[in-house]
Specification:
By secondary structure, the protein is mainly beta. The chain contains two helices and 19 strands.
């Protein structure tokens, strides 16, 4: 099929089938409201092309160049585009589904409201790319390059990112749910308002990272290093922080409800108004930490070190502190209120109402 016939078919809203335009020059073309099926564009050139409301299904773009192209409301379904070039392209409201984008180059690409679902993105380059209101869902991201990329209001789900390159990555309101980032060096990264619920971050280096307002509910951070991290207002409900290092971190107003911090190092950490209700922090170090107004209700703190900590109405109501060390701590602490403890044991389901009948 010639380029002229392709354009005529699309202009007349006639589906294009089994076209072979390998190696053709289509630079600067404008394609609107067309459907292209089972066609090949291997090593073709779409540089600076403008594609609007185009659908490509079962097409082959291997080695093709769409650098500097503009794509709006386009869809690629079950397509091949391995080794393709999309540098500096602009995507708006577009979709890739079940497509192979391995080894493709999306460097400096701008993606807005764009989704890749169940796609192969292994070794794909997204260096200096900008993703806004976009999603990479259930994709193969092995060895993906995200160096100096900016992700805003973007979701990456169920991805293995243990070999991803993320130097200089900047995130704001990112959704990393159920992703595996274990043993990665994420030190100093900006992960503001990130949703890392259920993520695996075991032995991950997050020292100096900015996690302000993030959600780490149910995340696994065993042996992770968050030393010097900035993470106020972070949600760590039921998180596993065993043997984690949080020295000198800012964890002001963080929520550790039912979290496990056994053996955790929180020395010198800012924990003002933090909540540790029903958390386990046995043999943890709070030495020199600022625990002003922190709530330790029903927490298991046996064998922990609070030497040199700053207390200010720090509430240890019903907390277990057997064998804990309280030496040279400063300020005041609130202890268990017996009447409140009894009231908390009240279970209406076990109360037999008095009917007055003997």
């Amino acid at each position: 099929m010639s380029i002229e016939l392709l354009l005529q078919s699309i202009d007349n809203q006639f589906p294009v089938r089994e076209a072979n335009l390998d190696g053709e020059i289509l630079s600067g073309l404008r394609l609107n409201d067309g459907v292209v099926l089972s066609s090949t564009f291997r090593n073709s050139h779409f540089t600076r092309a403008s594609l609007t409301s185009m659908t490509f299904q079962d097409c082959d773009f291997s080695g093709a160049s769409l650098a500097d192209a503009c794509l709006e409301k386009c869809m690629f379904v079950n397509c091949r585009a391995d080794g393709s070039d999309w540098r500096r392209a602009r995507f708006t409201q577009s979709t890739f589904m079940s497509s192979d984008l391995g080894h493709a180059d999306f460097g400096e690409t701008w993606l807005s409201q764009t989704t890749a679902m169940r796609c192969a993105l292994n070794h794909t380059i997204l260096r200096k790319a900008t993703l806004s209101q976009s999603a990479l869902m259930d994709c193969d991201l092995a060895n993906v390059v995200l160096d100096d990329a900016t992700l805003t209001n973007t979701a990456i789900t169920r991805a293995d990112l243990r070999r991803a390159q993320v130097t200089g990555l900047r995130c704001d309101t990112i959704h990393f749910s159920e992703c595996d980032l274990s043993e990665r060096d994420l030190s100093g990264l900006t992960l503001v308002r990130a949703n890392l619920s259920g993520a695996k971050l075991n032995r991950t280096n997050l020292s100096g990272a900015d996690l302000f307002g993030s959600v780490l509910t149910g995340a696994s951070l065993v042996g992770a290093d968050l030393s010097g991290a900035t993470a106020p207002n972070t949600l760590l409900v039921r998180a596993d922080l065993r043997a984690a290092r949080l020295r000198n971190a800012d964890l002001t107003q963080c929520i550790f409800v039912e979290a496990c911090l056994d053996g955790c190092d929180l020395s010198g950490t800012q924990l003002g108004t933090a909540v540790f209700t029903r958390a386990s922090a046995k043999f943890a170090s709070f030495a020199g930490a600022d625990m002003s107004y922190a709530l330790m209700h029903h927490a298991a703190l046996d064998g922990s070190d609070f030497s040199g900590s700053r207390f200010l109405r720090t509430d240890f109501h019903c907390a277990s502190t057997e064998g804990s060390l309280f030496v040279t701590q400063r300020g005041s602490a609130l202890q268990t209120v017996p009447e409140r403890a009894v009231a908390e044991l009240y279970d209406a389901s076990r109360v037999i109402p008095f009917t007055g009948v003997s």
